[in-house]
Amino acid sequence: MGLNGRLVITPLTDRIYLTLTQALSMYLGGAPAGPAGTGKTETTKDLAKALGLLCVVTNCGEGMDYKAVGKIFSGLAQCGAWGCFDEFNRIDASVLSVISSQIQTIRNALIHQLTTFQFEGQEISLDSRMGIFITMNPGYAGRTELPESVKALFRPVVVIVPDLQQICEIMLFSEGFLWAKTLAKKMTVLYKLAREQLSKQHHYDFGLRALKSVLVMAGELKRGSPELREVGPRA
């Protein structure tokens, strides 16, 4: 919410936007899946921002039951917001089967363009702008395979590791750096070497999140001290 930054648009971002908007046109949800730190949640949030909608992110876990998820669905349906459920495949398989029937109820109401419908024993209003999205990290420990009844309600999209150098270069240009191309190459090589050669402990993060925060801080330093010289191409 508010006046904050936007995502760098890459061919991958375009493809995700296209898939998610096509899913919405068919009254389906979107299901970006891929490794951690590839921008699944951020891309969904940025698309919601572009459309002027609120996107509520919920981190899912083994402790979530169908009643808790049902309350979130009820709120989304009534206010027309988007819901992004992170790590959706961590929810227990028995709970997922009930959740699929809840989503199907909402989808039927959207298809028939109803303004009110029965949900979990209550009659609630329905805003047609609502959307349900799930993100998944397949292959990680503690993840369950989604039942077919859930898969049928979501349009899958595979998210791969983005081109870090391109993102780095565009962010540096937007922060006001003139030697962005050279600096982007240096930064991505530095983080690649750090990822490969430094400690593999899980609390060290040399991915896109860490790189982005460094670039934003570099932009603040540049604006605060404009007299400082940027690194030249042969430096």
Distance between the termini: 40 Å
* Rounded Rg: 21 Å
Instruction: Give the number of helices.
Output: 8
The largest β sheet comes out as:
3 strands, parallel
Strand order of the largest sheet: 2-3-6
Structural class: alpha/beta
CATH topology annotation of the largest domain: Rossmann fold
- The number of distinct β-strands equals 7
What is the CATH H-level superfamily of the largest domain? P-loop containing nucleotide triphosphate hydrolases
How many structural domains? 2
Mean pLDDT: 87
- Regions with pLDDT < 50 over 5+ consecutive residues? none
Please name the CATH architecture of the largest domain.
3-Layer(aba) Sandwich
Shape: elongated
InterPro entries: AAA_6 (IPR035699), DHC (IPR026983), Dynein_AAA1S (IPR043157), P-loop_NTPase (IPR027417)
Family: Belongs to the dynein heavy chain family.
GO molecular function, one term: dynein light intermediate chain binding
Domain Dynein heavy chain hydrolytic ATP-binding dynein motor region: 1-230
Break the fold down into its secondary structure elements and pairings:
Blueprint (H helix, E strand, L loop, with lengths): L10 H15 L3 E5 L6 H11 L4 E5 L6 H14 L2 E5 L6 H19 L4 E4 L2 E4 L5 E4 L13 H4 L2 E5 L5 H12 L4 H18 L10 H17 L11
Parallel strand pairs: 1-7, 2-3, 3-6
Antiparallel strand pairs: 4-5
Helix pairs in contact: 3-4, 6-7, 6-8
